[in-house]
C-alpha cells in the first residue's frame, strides 16, 4: 500500500508543488534583482574603468622607464631566480657556454648570452688569422653586465684559448631595462675598448652615444689585423610596435661561406620563436580579429594598431632579410631568427587553446600541425633536462620553421593566400590585358621543380667536442621528427617485402611521403563567377596593406627621427610596394620559382601598370607594361581597380562627426557594374572522405593490397560504395 505522506508523493503532487514552485521562482527573481541592484555600481565602475584597462600598455611605456619601474621589475626577477638550480648552466637559465654558431668559418662566430630568467643577448666575435691579433666583439642587448662579463670569460676559455675578447660596441634592440640595464656597467668593465652604445634614435637607451635610424649600416669594429666589416654587415631595421623605436639587426655575410648562413635576424622582443612580442606602444585596438569579421569594404584599416603593427614588422623583416632575386627558396633554411627571450615552449603551448585563425588547424596542412607539435615536444625536453645536463636553448630557429610554427607568420600566410585569390579574380574578370599561361622566368635563380630540391646537404662543420659545440644553419634546420601517412608507409613496406621496388625508387617514394603531408586534406577555393563580399574586400585590403606597406612611425616626429614613413590620415593613402609584396609572398612560400609563381608576378606587374596609368603617374606604351612602373601605389587605387570600391575623401576636421566621407569615384564607371557578378560570402570546400588519409579509419575501408602504377601508389579498397564527390560552401 502506498504511503500518502512519502516524500516521493509530495514531490509529484501538483496541488502542493505548483504554489511552492511559483513561490520559489518569485523569490529567485527578487534575489536576482536585489543582487543586480547591489552590483549596479560595480557595473558602472567597470564601464568607466574599461578604457583605462585597455590602456595598461601606458604603464609600460611611461612608468616602466622610471627608476621605480626598474626596481620593481628586477625585484620580481630576483624572487623568481632564487629557485634556480645550480647545474651545468653555470647558474643561467640555459647552458650555452659551449655552443657557438659559425657565420664565416674561422672568422665570425655568434654566441648566445643567457641573462636573468629568460633573456637572451648575443656576442658577435671576429677572430683574426694571426694568433697575436685582437679578438673583437659586439654585444647585442646587455641587461645583466655581470652575467655577460662572466660568460665572455668562459667563452674565451672554451673556444679561444683564453685570449682576451675586446668588446667594442653594444647594440640595443630597445630601451627596456632587461635589455639595457647592464650598458653602463659593461662600459666600465671594458672602458678601454667599448666606444659605442647604439640604439634607436627615439628610444632613450641608457648610455647611448650613437643613435641609429631605419636602414643604417652599422660601423663594426676593426683594427690593423682584424676587420669585421670585411666579412659581415649589420643593418638596423626599424620595427615600431613593442616600443616606438624598436630595432632588429640583420647580419649578412659578405663572403662565400660553407657555414650555410644567409642572414641572421636579431629580433629583440619583436619576433620570438613561436610568437611575437607585446605591442605596448602601438596604437590601441582590442579584439582585432572579432572586429575584422564585422568590417566592410569602407571600414578604416588600423594597420599600426596592436597585432597588425607586429604583423607589419614581421613582413618588414621578411622583405629586408635577403634579396629573393639572388637566393632560392631553400635559403629560408639558412635565415636564422635569434630572439631576445627564450619563450618558445610557453608560446607553443598557448597555440593549442588560442581561438584565432592562425591557430585553427583545419585551415592548414597536417605538416603545420605536426611541426608545431614536434617542436613543442623537443623544446619541452630540452628545457627540462636533468640537473647534471643543464637546460638547452631551443632558439635560434630557421625562418623556414618559423613560417610553420609562428602564429604571426601563419597569419601573414593566410592573408597572402587571400591576396592571391583576389588577384586572380581581378585578372580573370577586369584586367585590361591577360597574362598568358606560360611565361618566362621572373626570378634571378635557376628555376627547377621544388620537390626535386628539398634534400639538405650537410655543410662542412668542425667537429664538436664536449667543450665546443660548433653548429651551423643545417644543424638548426634539421628536423628531429618526420611524419608520414601510415597507409603510404605500409604500401612501401609491402612493396619492399615483395621486392617490387629498388632502393632509389623507395627513397623517392619516401620523399614524396614527406611532401604529401604538406598538402591540405580539405580543398578550399573562392566561389567561381562571383566577387568577394564586403567583409572579404576589407580582409583583402588588410592583406595588401600588411604584406605590402612598410611599417610607419607611430608619430610624425618619430618618422623624421627614425627615417620611417609618416602616419597617414586615411588608410587609402598607404603606399603598397610591389617588390615588397613579392618578396614577402616568396619567403612565405606562396610564390615558387616555376611557371605558376612567375605568372603571378606578371599579374602583379600588370596590376601595378594599370594602377600607375590610373594615377597618371607614368604614360608609356602597353608593350612596356611591367618594366617602367613605379614600385609603390596607393591602397585606395588598389581598392578601386581590384574591388570596385570607391576611394573615400577624408571628411573635414569639424565635419567628421556628422558628415559622411565622399567617394572620389563613381562606382557606375567600374566594369564591376557591367559584369553582372554578385558578391558572395564564404568559399567552396571540397573533401573526399573515402580517399582522405585522416578519414580512412572511420569510413570502413579495408585495404586489401597495394599496387605500384607508374611510380605512384594506388590503394585498392573495398567494403563501401564510393559516393559522388561533394563540394560544399562554407561561410
Describe this protein's structure:
The protein is α/β, with parallel strands linked by helices and 731 residues long. It has a domain of 47 residues. 36% of the residues lie in helices and 15% in strands. It has 22 helices and 24 strands. The strands form seven sheets. The chain has an eight-stranded mixed beta sheet. A five-stranded mixed beta sheet has the order 8-9-10-13-14. β11 and β12 form a beta hairpin. The longest helix is centred in the first third of the chain and has 40 residues. It starts with 6 loop residues before the first helix and ends with a strand. About 8% of the residues have low confidence. Keywords: Membrane, Transmembrane, Transmembrane helix. InterPro entries: Metallo-B-lactamas, RibonucZ/Hydroxyglut_hydro. Pfam families: Lactamase_B (PF00753). This is Metallo-beta-lactamase domain-containing protein.
Amino acid at each position: 500500500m502506498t504511503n500518502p505522506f512519502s516524500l516521493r508523493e509530495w514531490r509529484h503532487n501538483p496541488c502542493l508543488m505548483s504554489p511552492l514552485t511559483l513561490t520559489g521562482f518569485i523569490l529567485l527573481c527578487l534575489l536576482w534583482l536585489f543582487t543586480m541592484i547591489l552590483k549596479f555600481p560595480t557595473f558602472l565602475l567597470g564601464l568607466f574603468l574599461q578604457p583605462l584597462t585597455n590602456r595598461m600598455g601606458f604603464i609600460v611605456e611611461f612608468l616602466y622607464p622610471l627608476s621605480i619601474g626598474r626596481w620593481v621589475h628586477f625585484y620580481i626577477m630576483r624572487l623568481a631566480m632564487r629557485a634556480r638550480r645550480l647545474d651545468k648552466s653555470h647558474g643561467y637559465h640555459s647552458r650555452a657556454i659551449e655552443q657557438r654558431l659559425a657565420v664565416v668559418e674561422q672568422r665570425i662566430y655568434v654566441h648566445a648570452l643567457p641573462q636573468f630568467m629568460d633573456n637572451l643577448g648575443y656576442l658577435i666575435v671576429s677572430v683574426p688569422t694571426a694568433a697575436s691579433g685582437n679578438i673583437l666583439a659586439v654585444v647585442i642587448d646587455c641587461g645583466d653586465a655581470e652575467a655577460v662579463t662572466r660568460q665572455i670569460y668562459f667563452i674565451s676559455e672554451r673556444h679561444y684559448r683564453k685570449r682576451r675578447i675586446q668588446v667594442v660596441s653594444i647594440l640595443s634592440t630597445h630601451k627596456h631595462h632587461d635589455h639595457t640595464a647592464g650598458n653602463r656597467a659593461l662600459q666600465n668593465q671594458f672602458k678601454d675598448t667599448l666606444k659605442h652604445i647604439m640604439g634607436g634614435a627615439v628610444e632613450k637607451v641608457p648610455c647611448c652615444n650613437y643613435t641609429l635610424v631605419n636602414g643604417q649600416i652599422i660601423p663594426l669594429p676593426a683594427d690593423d689585423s682584424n676587420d669585421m666589416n670585411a666579412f659581415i654587415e649589420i643593418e638596423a631595421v626599424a620595427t615600431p610596435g613593442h616600443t616606438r623605436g624598436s630595432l632588429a639587426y640583420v647580419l649578412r655575410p659578405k663572403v662565400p661561406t660553407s657555414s650555410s648562413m644567409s642572414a641572421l635576424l636579431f629580433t629583440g622582443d619583436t619576433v620570438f620563436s613561436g610568437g611575437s612580442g607585446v605591442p605596448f606602444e602601438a596604437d590601441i585596438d582590442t579584439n582585432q580579429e572579432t572586429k575584422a569579421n564585422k568590417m566592410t569594404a569602407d571600414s578604416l584599416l588600423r594597420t599600426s594598431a596592436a597585432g597588425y603593427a607586429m604583423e607589419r614588422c614581421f613582413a618588414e623583416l621578411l622583405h629586408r632579410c635577403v634579396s629573393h632575386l639572388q637566393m632560392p627558396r631553400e635559403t629560408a633554411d639558412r635565415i636564422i631568427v635569434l630572439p631576445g627571450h627564450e619563450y618558445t615552449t610557453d608560446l607553443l603551448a598557448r597555440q593549442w587553446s588560442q581561438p584565432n585563425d592562425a591557430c585553427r588547424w583545419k585551415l592548414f596542412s597536417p605538416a603545420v600541425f605536426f611541426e608545431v607539435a614536434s617542436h613543442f615536444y623537443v623544446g619541452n625536453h630540452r628545457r627540462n633536462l636533468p640537473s647534471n645536463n643543464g637546460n638547452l636553448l631551443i632558439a635560434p630557429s630557421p625562418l623556414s620553421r618559423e613560417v610553420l610554427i609562428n602564429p604571426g607568420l601563419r597569419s601573414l600566410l593566410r592573408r597572402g593566400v587571400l591576396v592571391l585569390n583576389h588577384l586572380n579574380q581581378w585578372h580573370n574578370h577586369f584586367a585590361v590585358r591577360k597574362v598568358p599561361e606560360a611565361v618566362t622566368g621572373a626570378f634571378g635563380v635557376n628555376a627547377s621543380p621544388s620537390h626535386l630540391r628539398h634534400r639538405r646537404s650537410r655543410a662542412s662543420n668542425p667537429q664538436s667536442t664536449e667543450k665546443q659545440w660548433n653548429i651551423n644553419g643545417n644543424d638548426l634546420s634539421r628536423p628531429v621528427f618526420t611524419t608520414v601517412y601510415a597507409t603510404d608507409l605500409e604500401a612501401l613496406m609491402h612493396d619492399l617485402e615483395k621486392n617490387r621496388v629498388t632502393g632509389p625508387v623507395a627513397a623517392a617514394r619516401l620523399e614524396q611521403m614527406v611532401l604529401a603531408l604538406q598538402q591540405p586534406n580539405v580543398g578550399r577555393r573562392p566561389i567561381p563567377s562571383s566577387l568577394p563580399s564586403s567583409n572579404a574586400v576589407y580582409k583583402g585590403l588588410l592583406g595588401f596593406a600588411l604584406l605590402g606597406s612598410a611599417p610607419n612611425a607611430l608619430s610624425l616626429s618619430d618618422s623624421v627621427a627614425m627615417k620611417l614613413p609618416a602616419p597617414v590620415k586615411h588608410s587609402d593613402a598607404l603606399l603598397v610596394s610591389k617588390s615588397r609584396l613579392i618578396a614577402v609572398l616568396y619567403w612565405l612560400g606562396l610564390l615558387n620559382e616555376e611557371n605558376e609563381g612567375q605568372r603571378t608576378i606578371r599579374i602583379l606587374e600588370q596590376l601595378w601598370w594599370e594602377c600607375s596609368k590610373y594615377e597618371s603617374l607614368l604614360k608609356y606604351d602597353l608593350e612596356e607594361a611591367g618594366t617602367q612602373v613605379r614600385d609603390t601605389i596607393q591602397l585606395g587605387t588598389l581598392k578601386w581597380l581590384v574591388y570596385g570600391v570607391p576611394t573615400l575623401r577624408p571628411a573635414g576636421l569639424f565635419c567628421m562627426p556628422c558628415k559622411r566621407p565622399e567617394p572620389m569615384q563613381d562606382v557606375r564607371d567600374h566594369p564591376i557594374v557591367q559584369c553582372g557578378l554578385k558578391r558572395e560570402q564564404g568559399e567552396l570546400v571540397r573533401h573526399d572522405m573515402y580517399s582522405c588519409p585522416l578519414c580512412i579509419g572511420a569510413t570502413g575501408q579495408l585495404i586489401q593490397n597495394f599496387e605500384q602504377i607508374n611510380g605512384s601508389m594506388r590503394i585498392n579498397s573495398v567494403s563501401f560504395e564510393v559516393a559522388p564527390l561533394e563540394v560544399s560552401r562554407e561561410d
